[in-house]
Amino acid sequence: MTTQVTDHRGGVWSIAVPIPDNPLGHTLVHLLETDRGPVLIDTGWDDPDSWDALVAGVTACGFALTDLHGVLITHHHPDHHGLSAKVREASGAWLAMHAADTAVVRRTRGATPDRWLDHLIAKLAAAGAPDDHLAPLRTARAGGGGRRMPGLRAALPDREIGPGELLDLPGRRLRAIWTPGHTPGHVCLHLEEEHPARRTPGFGRLFSGDHLLPGITPHIGLYEDPAGSSGEAADPLGDYLDSLERIGRLAPAEVLPAHQHAFTDAGGRVRTLLAHHEERLAQLRTLLSEPRTAWQLAMAMEWNRPWEQIPYGSRTIAVSEAEAHLRRLVKLGHAECVPGSGPVRYQAVDGVR
Questions:
Q1: What is the pLDDT of residue 146?
Q2: pTM exceeds 0.85
Q3: What region, left, alpha or beta, does residue 163 occupy, with left being phi > 0 and alpha being psi -120 to 50 degrees?
Q4: What is the pLDDT of residues 170-197, one digit of tens each?
Q5: Radius of gyration of the chain (CA)
Q6: In terms of Cα–Cα distance, which of 211, 241, 185, 223 is closest to 324?
Q7: Cβ contacts of residue 219 below 8 Å, gap of 6+?
Q8: Lowest mean pLDDT segment, chosen from 27-41, 104-118, 226-240, 332-346
Q9: What is the rounded distance in angstroms from the CA atom of residue 345 to the CA atom of residue 339?
């Protein structure tokens, strides 16, 4: 197995850890050298090949797994947090995560697989999903298939990452920037040190997780909670847009994301993403000139391929993204629920289409 490791200089490396059966290909796990030993930023998917790639990558950076001092998790998704428990067990390193994502992990661990499937089935049915989409989930529910769902035994962290905190990493200045949206507790990590290239405009380097990626838009869906306690007030897209603006003002010299590749001009990328979501919200207001369910809206939205070519699992993700945009439109007063509709339908508010 060939391990892809990149030396970003100044005691920073990235390790490409594969994600099985996923078009993203891999997660870029970053290794940051400190005076107390190296620290990982994310760990990758919990899979034997992924584990082998991570261990080989740490070795290629010049360290043993037992040298690891800590692990900083940008967010709880399994392609970032999946191997954390195994890393902690093998190295003795501490794990740190924002409290909002720790709460998600705790809820997930506390919910039975059947409850998660019940939650997903009910949510999709309310969104207007057809029976042929719900049938495989009902079959899995009847057969106990939820036991194979990823993330149900994710590791609970030892430490909390506080917003704005200058993390306790001897010899380095790494500050946590809370950037909710992709998840409620997503954090970016700003290395407040001069860029090794010195001539690069901006200040420091930003480990951006999934918040800011060079060529793709991160998924923004409703925050999941099988207990249904997240409330109608949650506005993940609004959170994400606010977080993007904060990162734009930060103006790092270089962005080191968890997917694709490192890039500069964070401000330009932020402006592109803000414009993308503004355009999408305007398109949805037009689509809602007639009442639609979230499923019908997702079918009518523009994706990177026609709806009939979108795989089964990706359709569920697309509907969640449509729901997040609907939630934003409702928050802005641009859309509203159609009273008494079931499944729930939405329409544009007169005068703001």
A1: 55
A2: yes
A3: beta
A4: 999 999 999 999 999 999 999 999 999 8
A5: 21
A6: 223
A7: 182, 317, 320, 321
A8: 226-240
A9: 8
Mean pLDDT score, 331-339 = 94
Residue written as token pair 């705790």: 106
List the beta bridge partners of residue 263: 255
What is the CA 30 to chain-centroid distance, rounded?
A: 16
Question: What was the pLDDT predicted at 230?
Answer: 46
Distance between CA 183 and CA 56 in Å, rounded? Answer: 29
Cα distance between residue 50 and residue 67, in whole Å: 19
What is the distance between the alpha carbons of residues 209 and 204, in angstroms, rounded to a whole number? 16
